[in-house]
Amino acid sequence: MSFTTLGLSAPILKAVQESGYTEPTPIQKQAIPVVLEKRDLLAGAQTGTGKTAGFTLPLLELLSQQKPPKGKKRVRALILTPTRELAAQVGESVRTYGKYLPFTSTVIFGGVGINPQKNILKKGVDIVIATPGRLLDLVGQKALDLSHVETLILDEADRMLDMGFIHDIKKILALLPKKRQNLLFSATFSKEIKKLSDGLLHHPALIEVARQNSASEQVEQMIYPVDKSRKRELIIHLIKSNDWKQVLIFTRTKHGANKLSEQLNKQNIHAAAIHGNKSQGARTKALADFKSGAVRVLVATDIAARGIDIDQLPHVVNFELPNVPEDYVHRIGRTGRAGHEGEAASLVSIDEADLLKNIEKLIKRKLPRTIVEGFKPDPTIKAEKAPARGQRRGGQRPQRRRQRA
Ligand code: AMP
């Protein structure tokens, strides 16, 4: 099956062809016709499935089929994402696939000056890709009018709820015209997502690619049991002995990310850390250096890593297991993307036995264990009490976390 049978017109097909895609991915095959019928959609798809093109291509097609309103450009499509990185990447896709169309788009997120964003909006744009907080700020300052939006897309909706954006989302919904098309993409389906979609979507088509909550099949997953105090040594050993060239490492805390990155650098393994305390400029630079290969290891916290899209990222490492099992699925989804093979390694100490059990329950698989020579866990070490589910947010109110992504 090729893209030509999906109902997309020539300017879009040309841009797709130039991206080097020959065949639509399963989510694209299913989502594109549904969106073109102007139906609402509830799609279960994690990153790496090609979901971005799955909504961007038909969105562009629909916009080009309808006559634009006369006069100044109005915002006709709104794409909401949980993080700045994801917003930037979706914005990039919109530009890439829409390069032979006359539409203008802009990406809006916090942590950078608001005035340049206001100036762009003043000139008029067709498509806005935004994180919720800054979007509302701009509406509050009368710099943005959402009353002509024809299509609303919530990307990574589960993550938006995790990050406490539900109130912002509700406020945004109230600003949109009643009659519109709604698309909701989520990697996982919790009760909260069902509640949100019930209130938002009208007779939606339901599409799910890969099994619900299943870890990407392309990813080879390995557990390395090790004592907590020796994890640093082990990760250095793994990187050096396997000659891993591009590794994304997840840590639970920002402090942990900084510390590990420093220690890797001391061992001549060029590393950078990204997390919410870093400026947007520093984060963008670290990501660019990592993509280009100038930096070999990127150490990240979960939220900072959301939406990082690196083609052919070969290695993801969990330096610590996440407290919420769904985060494991999100993390390993960074590798093995779009048909490429990837490896996900998790360093697991005895404290994390319960977390591992929950992950295996979620993905319905027991993961293989390998004890690396010289790193056999000390059997006399007993587990410390693992942090309970729900404590990972440090007890802070979710709304306050918004700026920390
Ligand atoms: P996404 O799930 O949207 O984050 O996309 C994951 C990756 O797959 C991105 O790097 C896309 O460039 C790539 N991709 C999207 N659609 C296709 C396709 N039809 N064929 C090959 N690669 C694709």
Summarize the structure.
It is built from 15 helices and 13 strands.
Q: How does this model look, in words?
A:
A seven-stranded parallel β-sheet has the order 3-4-2-5-6-1-7, sandwiched between helices. It folds into two domains: 3-208, P-loop containing nucleotide triphosphate hydrolases (Rossmann fold); 219-400, P-loop containing nucleotide triphosphate hydrolases (Rossmann fold). The protein is an alpha/beta fold. Residues 389-405 have low confidence and may be disordered. 38% of the residues lie in helices and 15% in strands. It is built from 15 helices and 13 strands. Strand 10, helix 12 and strand 11 form a beta-alpha-beta unit. Adenosine monophosphate binds at residues 21, 23-25, 28, 47-53, 309, 311, 337-338.
Helix-strand string: HHEHEHEHEHEHHEHEEHEHEHEHEHEH
Heteromolecules bound: adenosine monophosphate
DSSP strand (E) fraction? 5-15%
State the total count of DSSP E strands: 13
Q: Mean pLDDT across all residues, rounded? A: 88
Largest beta-sheet details:
7 strands, parallel
By CATH, the superfamily of the largest domain comes out as P-loop containing nucleotide triphosphate hydrolases
Whole-number total of structural domains:
2
- Share of helix, binned: 25-40%
Report the end-to-end length measured between terminal Cα atoms.
39 Å
What's the CATH topology label of the largest domain? Rossmann fold
The CATH architecture assignment of the largest domain turns out to be 3-Layer(aba) Sandwich
If strands are numbered along the chain, what order do they take across the biggest sheet? 3-4-2-5-6-1-7
Q: What kind of assembly state do the chains in view correspond to?
A: single chain
CATH class of the largest domain: Alpha Beta
The structure class reads alpha/beta
The rounded Rg comes to 22 Å
Any low-confidence stretches, pLDDT <50, length ≥5?
A: 389-405
